[in-house]
Amino acid sequence: MWELRRDEALSRLEEHLKAGRVDQDIVDLLRLINSLSYAFTTSSCSGRIQLYEAKLPGSKFDMRTTGKWHRPISLEELRPLIKGENLWLAVLPPILHVSVKRGEELRFLQLLRDSGFKRAGIISISEDEAIIEASGTERLEAPLILEGVRVYRDEALPLLVERANQLLLKSKDRLRRLKEVLSVEVAGGLDNIGGKRAPER
Amino acid sequence: MWELRRDEALSRLEEHLKAGRVDQDIVDLLRLINSLSYAFTTSSCSGRIQLYEAKLPGSKFDMRTTGKWHRPISLEELRPLIKGENLWLAVLPPILHVSVKRGEELRFLQLLRDSGFKRAGIISISEDEAIIEASGTERLEAPLILEGVRVYRDEALPLLVERANQLLLKSKDRLRRLKEVLSVEVAGGLDNIGGKRAPER
After folding, report:
1. Is residue B200 part of a domain?
2. Residue of B143, B150, B166 lying closest to A160 (CB–CB)
3. Using one digit for the tens of pLDDT, what is the confidence trace for B20-53?
């Protein structure tokens, strides 16, 4: 059953990849996770800069996204978008959801920890799978306009954009480290292709 | 073994309470969780407003906290603290760590979900316990000073403080809802004191 769901998920991912719907920054990592016989990815984001209209951050139901970038941005592309009544600039960390075959969930959780994803946990368990969510912790969530009043001083805006970009790149560096840790895991798996499990670390 | 650790943790909590080291906003909730025979709390925060010096948010090692409040703040108390080279204002959501006896972890996770703690997961599992971490998702993380440059316009500061306070109160409302859900669970537990388990919902 779980193996069937894994096959279906991997086919769906290939379709999404062909259609260009997957963030390029995270494709290698997804392929690496999906090469583990005991895991498959169900959703992910490599981290992003987001501009949204809302009274308060995190109000999913009355927020409207007006800009979204999975890469650093320039002041020139941000400036014309600074309009509206209540506008927020956010830098959101990478997030991963992975289905792990029962019995391997603690092993996979430890791999995530080893690579610096401190916020990783099992969010659901059924008979044959555990769903693990992992995300970075660094965020920026700053208002640009509140009740029609522009919040930032003009001379501070370049500094704000610079910090947003730095934070995004720092976040994405976590993905690189996870790839390194998983490469070791995958290599260990191949060494043990005869059926033996790689030793617990 | 787990029961012994629970007894010790509850005694420690009583000492912390006597010494006034526990945030008053969360005491009732901690007592409620600890009245469940299958759980005890290990650490918690009811959500807070925090002022800290750092180049980037989330840089634990080079950040210095210069203000911390578990309640709404006034512009008057914030203003004199706005100084330094790089200063951030954060609103951090409530966070709970709970040890749950093995076999009850999914039940407790569901209770957290029912009360709106969407970010809840099992962060470690051993033979006799699962550690569950639950936190709110709403955050504010906004720079007030970057490289010595004051970031906010004077007229926007009252609005920023207002939003920070609103977000903190919204966060704390999650604690109230969790108390309601847990009250039902505790009542169910008492009805079944003869040893039968409360029915799964």
Report:
1. no
2. B143
3. 888 888 999 999 999 999 999 999 999 999 999 9
Of B132, B152, B160, B145, the closest CA to residue B49 belongs to: B160
Q: How far is B13 from chain A (nearest CA, A)?
A: 25
| A186 lies in some domain | yes
Range of the domain at A43: 2-190
| A151 vs B57, B125, B160: nearest CB | B160
Contact B38, B101 (CB under 8 A): yes
What does each C-alpha distance from A177 to A24, A191, B73, B74 come to in angstroms?
17, 22, 39, 42
What is the domain count for chain B? 1
Q: What is the pTM of this model?
A: 0.88
- The DSSP output letter for B155 is G
Q: What are phi and psi of A40, to 5 degrees?
A: -145, 150
Does residue A98 belong to any structural domain of this protein?
yes
User: What is the rounded distance in angstroms from the CA atom of residue A22 to the CA atom of residue B16?
Assistant: 49
- What CATH number did the domain enclosing B118 receive? 3.30.1960.10
Write out pLDDT tens, residues A90-141: 999 999 999 999 999 999 999 998 888 888 999 999 999 999 999 988 899 9
Evaluate whether B157 touches B7 at the Cβ level (below 8 Å): no
Report CA A175 to chain centroid distance, whole Å. Answer: 8
A171 belongs to a structural domain: yes
Using a CB-CB distance cutoff of 8 angstroms, which residues of chain B are in contact with residue A142? Answer: 140-143
Give the containing element (helix H, strand E) for A101. strand A95-101
